Amino acid sequence: SPLPAMFVMSIWCSSFSLSSRSLAIALVVCVTLVYFSYSFNACLLASISRSLQQSNLRNLLTLTSSPRNDTSESEGSSTNTTRSSNHTSNTANSSQPTTNAPAQTVTTSQDGAPKYQLLRQQGLRPSRHFPDTLIIGVKKSGTRALLEFIRLHPDVRAAGSEVHFFDRHYQRGLRWYRHHMPYTIEGQITMEKTPSYFVTKEVPQRVYHMNPATKLLIVVRDPVTRAISDYTQAASKKADMKRFEQLAFVNGSYSVVDTNWGPVKIGVYARYLERWLLCFPLSQLLFISGERLIMDPAYEIGRVQDFLGLKRVVTEKHFYFNATKGFPCLFKSEARSTPHCLGKTKGRNHPHIDPSAIERLREFYRPFNNKFYQLTGINFAWP
What is the rounded end-to-end Cα distance, in angstroms, of the chain? Predict the structure, then answer.
């Protein structure tokens, strides 16, 4: 009851000789301490709870993006890489220097771009695959332009530089090659460009062993113009280079063409195409006109998209023509969101070549061009 309690309190205060004012101060201090202690503990518990929740989320993302078990990646084994139903599985022949292996899956320590973090949260696993499509040539015909134009498509991912696996680094093995491929998700096409593949003798068989269903893109242009462009690029890097006419012909006379000189030799397209047709049917090759790729890029890229089974996303709206360079440019690309051209080397001015030399080269190439038209079923109407 209240009376005994008051009586006890009165005795307690008397025993300690406390005034009523001192007692009130003591009570206020005690209440304040209890309040701050409660607030501190509540904040501490809330902070611990948030930390636990964030830790669980990180663990979940790590689990969803962890690599698959590669138990079959030992030497002497061969495993096919699973791709989208729209694209063919890449296979490796047992004669390869290094056997095929499962696609490498992105981990949290690799390719941490926000777009891939978002994909992982959605349950998608970006991984590296062997290319479905190769741009195999021809040098100085527009291969870089083709690659940059087709990369505007969201379902195309390409290696950024020429890998040269099938002609220079083949002994490094297929695992090395796949490591140089971009990360893709299901439904995307992996692409690689190395123009020297077209003219290298061993490459067709090596590509076939990687994947006999590989699609091949070949950009070709008038071989005389191509040879001059090839020479122009080399001359820009060597100040004391001989004149084009001196290199293209034997003994300073226009009567005999030097077929051992690289820029001339590459233009005999039919010779190299016959090698590829021994391994791949014509239906897996698409020939792009280098001249039309410059004058009407949307048309040629439309053909490429159809050939690859892609929706026509890249159209006229992506291009504008730079009259100064005489070359198509992009309003935006995968790397840049502002209008730009491909580079200073594109549209480089050619040196003056003796018209008689040009006419002699046209006579030289004419029978080879006709053979090329027959093999491809396309008349490119080169002079």
Answer: 119
Separation between Cα atoms, residue 117 and residue 60, nearest integer Å: 12
CB 137 within 8 A of CB 339: no
Assess whether pLDDT exceeds 50 at residue 299: yes
DSSP character at residue 217: E
Q: b/e for 53-81, b at 16 or more Cβ within 10 A?
A: eeeeeeeeeeeebeeeeeeeeeeeeebeb
User: In this structure, what DSSP letter does residue 87 have?
Assistant: S
Tokens of 356: 């008689």
Question: Contact, 311 vs 188, CB < 8 A?
Answer: no
Buried (b) or exposed (e) across 103-130, using 16+ Cβ within 10 A? bbbbebeeeeeeebeebbeeebbbbbbb
Tell me, what's the pLDDT at 8? 43
Q: Give the separation between CA 142 and CA 145, rounded to whole angstroms.
A: 5
Model pLDDT for residues 182-191, shown as the tens digit of each residue: 999 999 999 9
Separation between Cα atoms, residue 247 and residue 40, nearest integer Å: 86
**CA dihedral sign of residues 345, 351, 354, 357:** negative
pTM: 0.69
What are the tokens at 285?
């090759």
